[in-house]
């Protein structure tokens, strides 16, 4: 596809979104490029998802589109709720449905009127249980069909991310047992460190809970703890710092430590927490002979470091 298509797509997305011939021919990577240069309203986005779900797009590709697309929801909470509810129906994903219900609850927005349902029978409950088990088996079957190589990293990540969203511990454990968590992308990331770089604690945490190694170092010698310190995710930092065999002073390839990177990005609460860890080296130096104190951008951060012994 030429760059001219991208310009036309951004000017009139409806023309392409509702053209099944176009959607059937376009490569997923090209479609994502067009979406990156466009902003869709809610109706356009839902039309797109409904149309691609009827064609050759599997759930992994649809999740890929979700990661890349920009949607204008008019800053209205009810539009966000409608978006989440529609996504849950299209993807058959209870996570989005539950999230929309939670937003209705905290914002005191009533549920749309529905016909009152009769209580479920034992047979109906059993059928739902069997359907859930079949779905888990389908996800695992889809995963084991994928060759474990760099080119398939994104697909594998998508499936494991789906497992974490659906709290599917059984499939996640099987995936780790079969070694799908050890696949690396072209930057040396495993699924765990890629999840950390996307600030995806839900996936990263489930991987570790199901047996993945929290201390893995990628090509740049950055583990999940280091990356979450960079992202400023305090909950994630606390989780990974509590894991066995995790050294908060472990440096990356340029001798940057978790404390240095958290200071550099001015994540004050993360720095506060790191300074409570036993053995934290506040005066460690990187390859340029710089300390955490030299990375501080605010007076508050400098005062915190000096108070705890930085020189």
TrEMBL record:
Q: Which GO terms describe its biological process?
A: regulation of DNA-templated transcription
Q: Which residues form a coiled coil?
A: 122-149
Query: Membrane: is it a keyword of this entry?
Result: no
Q: Where are the ANK repeats?
A: 254-287
Against InterPro entries, the record matches this protein to: Ankyrin_rpt (IPR002110), Ankyrin_rpt-contain_sf (IPR036770), iASPP (IPR028320)
What keywords would UniProt list here?
Answer: ANK repeat, Coiled coil
Cross-referenced SUPFAM superfamilies: Ankyrin repeat
Q: Which domain of life is it from?
A: Eukaryota
Q: Name one Pfam family in it.
A: Ank_2
The name this protein goes by in its record: Uncharacterized protein
* Protein's organism: Trichomonas vaginalis (strain ATCC PRA-98 / G3)
């Amino acid at each position: 596809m030429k760059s001219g298509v991208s310009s036309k797509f951004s000017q009139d997305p409806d023309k392409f979104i509702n053209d099944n011939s176009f959607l059937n021919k376009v490569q997923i990577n090209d479609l994502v490029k067009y979406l990156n240069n466009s902003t869709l309203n809610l109706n356009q986005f839902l039309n797109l998802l409904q149309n691609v779900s009827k064609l050759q797009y599997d759930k992994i590709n649809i999740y890929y589109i979700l990661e890349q697309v920009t949607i204008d929801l008019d800053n209205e909470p009810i539009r966000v709720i409608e978006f989440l509810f529609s996504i849950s129906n299209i993807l058959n994903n209870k996570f989005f449905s539950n999230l929309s219900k939670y937003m209705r609850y905290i914002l005191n927005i009533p549920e749309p009127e529905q016909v009152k349902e009769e209580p479920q029978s034992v047979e109906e409950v059993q059928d739902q249980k069997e359907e859930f088990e079949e779905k888990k088996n389908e996800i695992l079957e889809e995963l084991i069909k994928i060759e474990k190589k760099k080119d398939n990293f994104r697909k594998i990540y998508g499936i494991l991310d789906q497992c974490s969203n659906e709290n599917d511990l059984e499939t996640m454990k099987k995936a780790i047992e079969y070694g799908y968590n050890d696949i690396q992308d072209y930057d040396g990331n495993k699924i765990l460190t890629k999840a950390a770089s996307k600030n995806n604690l839900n996936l990263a945490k489930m991987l570790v809970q199901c047996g993945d190694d929290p201390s893995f170092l990628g090509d740049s010698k950055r583990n999940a703890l280091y990356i979450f310190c960079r992202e400023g995710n305090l909950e994630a930092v606390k989780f990974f710092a509590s894991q066995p065999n995790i050294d908060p002073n472990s440096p990356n390839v340029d001798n940057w430590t978790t404390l240095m990177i958290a200071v550099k990005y001015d994540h004050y609460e993360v720095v506060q927490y790191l300074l409570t860890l036993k053995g934290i080296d506040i005066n460690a130096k990187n390859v340029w002979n710089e300390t955490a104190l030299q990375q501080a951008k605010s007076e508050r951060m400098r005062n915190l470091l000096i108070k705890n012994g930085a020189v």
